[in-house]
Design goal:
alpha/beta; Metallo-beta-lactamase, Chain A; globular
Length: 214
């Protein structure tokens, strides 16, 4: 059974998730920790709960989701997994941060590509990769079927969807991703987004203005 801890990091309030099970192995999803203090919060939580980080998973490569990527990968010597269609986003992360007056370390660690339908394992648990391009070309969600939990990144939010006006964004493609990959999930699937509050698939199908009529 997986357990989940949510951190809200950086000035854009990006959601970073720590996901673990009874083995104490854990994955870190979207390490957007910008400051030493935020990295320290991650470290304290790991030590207090005796967790062993084994992988970093990225829902996409936008700078606010990878501000702490280099530091986290170095600190725990972790492999990084992401859809390779977002490598251009990773390469521009330092530049984009500088445009807002923020400084992050250049991302030099090797990134392993993941594909639609692939299974990511840690401990005794599994997360299925759902490729959901539209917010970015390499955007993915991670789905745990056993507990019906979806880490939706910036694909789907409570009452909204990801922006498509940035480079690599495509509104029609994003809506197609949501309808083909997410709409058919169980209605009580918990949706944990890249920003904001949790929701469920059922709630979004009923009330999200972008999904009406569904």
């Amino acid at each position: 059974m997986i357990e989940i801890k949510t951190f809200y990091f950086n000035e854009l309030r990006e959601c970073c998730y720590i996901v673990w099970d009874q083995t104490k192995e854990c994955v870190i999803i979207d390490p957007g920790c910008q400051t030493d203090n935020e990295l320290g919060r991650l470290d304290t939580f790991m030590r207090d709960n005796l967790l062993k980080p084994v992988k970093i998973l990225l829902t996409h490569g936008h700078f606010d989701h990878v501000m702490g990527l280099e530091n986290v990968a170095t600190k725990w010597d972790l492999p990084i997994y992401m859809h390779l269609n977002d490598m251009d986003q990773i390469k521009r992360a330092v530049q984009y941060c500088a445009m807002f007056g923020w400084e992050i370390k250049e991302i030099t660690h090797e990134i392993t590509g993941i594909k639609d339908g692939e299974t990511i394992t840690f401990g005794a648990s599994k997360l299925k990769v759902l490729h959901t391009p539209g917010h970015t070309q390499g955007g993915v969600c991670f789905y745990n079927k056993e507990q019906k939990v979806l880490f939706s990144g910036d694909t789907l939010f409570e009452g909204s969807i990801g922006r498509t006006d940035h480079p690599g964004g495509n509104y029609d493609q994003l809506m197609d991703s949501i309808y083909k990959k997410l709409r058919g999930l169980p209605l009580d699937t918990q949706v944990l987004p890249g920003h904001g509050e949790p929701t469920t698939i059922g709630t979004e199908l009923k009330s999200n203005p972008f999904l009406q009529p569904y």
